Inverse folding.
């Protein structure tokens, strides 16, 4: 967050709070700045306040407290139709009584654009999403994916600088979703649009975004580029929410610089990187990604702590092997290994020792 | 299997070689029969209570045998009457002035009428088209036995109205049970002596005026219910369910109270010594002598009927508005439309099916409304249905009532057809 200054921020939320009923805060102290051209994703479980944030930005909800700035200017008092923000909705919101062409024409007409100019822009807009041949169809005659393409074209046709998308691919099947994810990011970068994208699908967030803001409980839990988010989660929620994660609980025994020793509840001792712990005696939950777990002694550091593990299940998944272990009293500890020629295939019942590099094992809040 | 492949182009068959279509029909016939049996009671009910009476009504509007057939009430025996006169009318073209044989035939028929005790019935039929004729028949029939040739003179001595050419024109028309004269009467038209269609006297023209008034008031009421119902329905549709349920109960309340109670309460409110006038006078807005006349005129009919028919507009509107996702309007706003443009171009068009349904419903109900205008309409707030009721109950001219009702039905069917052409009946959404 520190690397973007508020002054050159295109979109900024400053200490924004939102309550619908005057009793509970749906958004609690939101601070966020976005530079021009960034693709930012708000990721979080359902009910975490993502849509509310988007609606405040678009002007359909007002912030209870705090300020939202667009291009340096506060927008709290600008009505939605003057904000010039393109929006894509989960249910597409294509006007059912208009053809595709009329849908695209709508934002241009309300801007008083002439007919020939409109037609040219509509055609260009449709070509951009490979829907040039569908101008005369009704939305109901299109498939879900086609409708979403049109919704995207409509949100872009009046050349807004900021586009908001609220779970636009939520209703589509996996394959179509992946195609459209690619097309959307491609278009956004090609046109240099600033995009705020909302999803509850972490894969979508990781593959599409420049930065991801992880929402939970009305707060941004972490705001970081995808790789950092995955590899360096700052708290247990993010570690659990993004990707697959093994969590072990225990107490901090010792902190030495960027290394600490954690005694697990089962009694064993491991090394970890202190991220979200302050002092000896704190309870902690350590987090290790399944692909960072090693059971080949030769790959571990000299003198590293190891844990005894029993293989419970070996799942062959083609490109990877997924092995379920019983470790330190829990029996859903997952190890992922690549299907390489020299890779050992574990058998259920086998007793092994597992370990990891201390920096891959992050001691987070309990 | 290979067989089936080889015969791929031919008729499809089931595994044991029966034609697929036949097999399917047999499999479905049982289900179809059962479904038919389930709807049979309703079908019979509709046939008996709806189709048959309407058919009867349509027949009665063109068929009246009051001057051609006598049915004995006790035995049900049917006896043709006025047969001699009918023979004379057949032999002589319209416009022939009645000669002695004509009067002789009439006298013979009057004797028969007296024997059957049916002069009243025949007279009533003629009276429909020429008022005052009923007594002519009853009087003449009483003395029919004593009539002596020359019959023309004898009858004219009895009453010189027997020489009225209009009477002979009406008797000629009535001598055939099938007639279009009731439709003509329902449109303020009649026939002159030569059988040509002409307007009736200006001071007797009522029906066309009433049809026009019914049309106008129904359109006005439809429009008023639309104007009132649209915001209410919108509010119902966007309010959280908790609040909208309460409001919905208020809207439906009129459904749960008797029509008479509602109409009477409007009378209590609107009459010149009523609540509204008393309040206005009490607040000094009106002088005691300038009390507003809101009852027993068209205004009363319009106010009471608008209120009573309001739910029929609210419900269809509500049912199209409820499922309209708020994201449509939001999308329109984000695309740069003001709230008015978003309403006009995005929200409103999506509610048109509900407007159509509500308007059609209210209009059709209003056109046929009877009790409210009868109670609060006074003289100039009456609708066509009140006149139909009058002819059913008071003047007992059922054929004319049937003709008026058939015209009303025809008009509604035409409007329905127009609606289908303009809006499309598939777009109708009632709930
Ligand atoms: N219009 C509203 N009125 C009252 N509460 C709302 C409204 N919209 C959302 N909420 C509440 O605010 C919370 C956050 O909702 P939302 O922003 O839609 O979350 P998300 O999009 O992350 O799923 C939820 O608990 C939801 O019930
Ligand atoms: Mg949401």
């Amino acid at each position: 967050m520190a690397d973007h200054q508020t002054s050159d921020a295109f979109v900024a939320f400053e200490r924004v709070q939102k309550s619908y009923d005057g009793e509970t805060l749906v958004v609690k102290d939101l601070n966020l700045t976005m530079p021009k051209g960034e693709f930012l994703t708000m990721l979080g479980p359902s009910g975490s306040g993502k849509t509310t944030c988007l609606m405040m930005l678009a002007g359909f909800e007002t912030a209870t407290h705090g300020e939202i700035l667009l291009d340096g200017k506060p927008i709290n008092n600008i009505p939605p139709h003057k904000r010039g923000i393109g929006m894509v909705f989960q249910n597409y919101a294509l006007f059912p009584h208009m053809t595709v062409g009329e849908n695209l024409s709508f934002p241009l007409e309300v801007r008083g654009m002439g007919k020939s100019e409109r037609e040219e822009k509509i055609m260009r807009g449709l070509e951009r999403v490979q829907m040039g041949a569908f101008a005369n169809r009704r939305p109901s005659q299109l498939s879900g994916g086609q409708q979403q393409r049109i919704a995207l074209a409509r949100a872009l046709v009046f050349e807004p600088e900021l586009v908001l998308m609220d779970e636009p691919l939520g209703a589509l099947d996996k394959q179509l979703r992946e195609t459209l994810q690619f097309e959307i990011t491609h278009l956004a970068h090609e046109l240099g649009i600033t995009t705020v994208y909302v999803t509850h699908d972490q894969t979508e967030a990781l593959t599409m975004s420049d930065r991801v803001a992880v929402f939970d409980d009305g707060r941004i839990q972490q705001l970081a580029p995808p790789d950092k988010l995955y590899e360096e989660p700052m708290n247990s929620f993010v570690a659990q929410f993004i990707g697959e994660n093994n969590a072990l609980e225990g107490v901090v025994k010792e902190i030495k610089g960027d290394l600490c020793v954690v005694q697990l509840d089962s009694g064993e001792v491991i090394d970890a990187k202190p991220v979200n712990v302050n002092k000896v005696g704190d309870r902690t939950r350590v987090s290790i990604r399944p692909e960072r777990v090693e059971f080949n002694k030769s790959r571990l550091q000299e003198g590293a702590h190891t844990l005894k593990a029993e293989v419970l299940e070996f799942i062959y998944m083609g490109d990877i092997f997924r092995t379920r272990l019983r470790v330190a009293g829990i029996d859903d500890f997952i190890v992922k290994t690549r299907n390489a020629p020299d890779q050992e295939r574990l058998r259920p019942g086998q007793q092994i020792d597992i370990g990891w590099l201390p920096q891959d094992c992050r001691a987070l809040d309990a | 299997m290979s067989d089936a492949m080889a015969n791929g182009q031919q008729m499809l068959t089931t595994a044991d070689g029966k034609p697929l279509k036949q097999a399917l029909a047999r499999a479905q016939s049982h289900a179809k029969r059962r479904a038919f049996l389930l709807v049979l009671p309703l079908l019979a009910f509709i046939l008996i209570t709806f189709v048959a009476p309407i058919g009867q009504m349509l027949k009665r509007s063109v068929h009246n045998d009051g001057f051609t057939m006598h049915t004995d009430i006790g035995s049900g025996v049917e006896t043709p009457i006025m047969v001699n006169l009918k023979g004379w009318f057949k032999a002589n073209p319209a416009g022939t002035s009645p000669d002695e044989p004509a009067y002789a035939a009439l006298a013979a028929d009057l004797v028969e009428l007296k024997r059957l005790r049916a002069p009243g019935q025949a007279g009533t039929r003629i009276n429909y088209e020429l008022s005052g004729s009923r007594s002519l028949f009853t009087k003449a029939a009483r003395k029919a036995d004593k009539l002596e040739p020359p019959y023309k003179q004898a009858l004219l001595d009895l009453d010189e109205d027997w020489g009225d050419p209009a009477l002979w024109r009406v008797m000629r028309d009535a001598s055939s049970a099938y007639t279009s004269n009731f439709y003509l009467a329902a449109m303020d038209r009649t026939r002159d002596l030569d059988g040509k269609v002409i307007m009736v006297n200006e001071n007797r023209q009522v029906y066309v005026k009433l049809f026009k008034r019914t049309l106008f008031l129904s359109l006005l009421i439809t429009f008023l219910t639309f104007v009132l119902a649209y915001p209410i329905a919108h509010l119902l549709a966007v309010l959280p369910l908790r609040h909208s349920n309460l409001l919905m109960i208020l809207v439906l309340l009129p459904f749960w109270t008797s029509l008479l109670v509602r109409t009477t309460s409007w009378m209590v409110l609107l009459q010149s010594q009523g609540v509204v006038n008393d309040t206005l006078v009490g607040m000094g807005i009106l002088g005691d002598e300038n009390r507003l006349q809101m009852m027993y005129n068209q205004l009363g009919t319009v106010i009471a009927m608008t209120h009573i028919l309001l739910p029929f507009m609210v419900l269809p509107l509500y049912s199209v508005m409820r499922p309209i996702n708020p994201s449509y309007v939001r999308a329109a706003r984000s695309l740069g439309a003001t709230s008015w443009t978003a309403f006009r171009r995005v929200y409103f068009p999506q509610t048109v099916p509900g407007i159509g349904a509500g308007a059609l419903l209210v209009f059709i109900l209003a056109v046929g409304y009877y009790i409210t205008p009868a109670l609060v309409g006074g003289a100039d707030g009456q609708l066509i249905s009140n006149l139909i009721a009058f002819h059913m109950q008071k003047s007992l001219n059922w054929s004319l009532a049937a003709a008026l009702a058939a015209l009303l039905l025809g008009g509604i069917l035409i409007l329905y057809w127009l609606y289908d052409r303009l809006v499309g009946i598939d777009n109708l959404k009632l709930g």
User: Anything to note?
Assistant: Residues 69-179 of chain B form one domain.
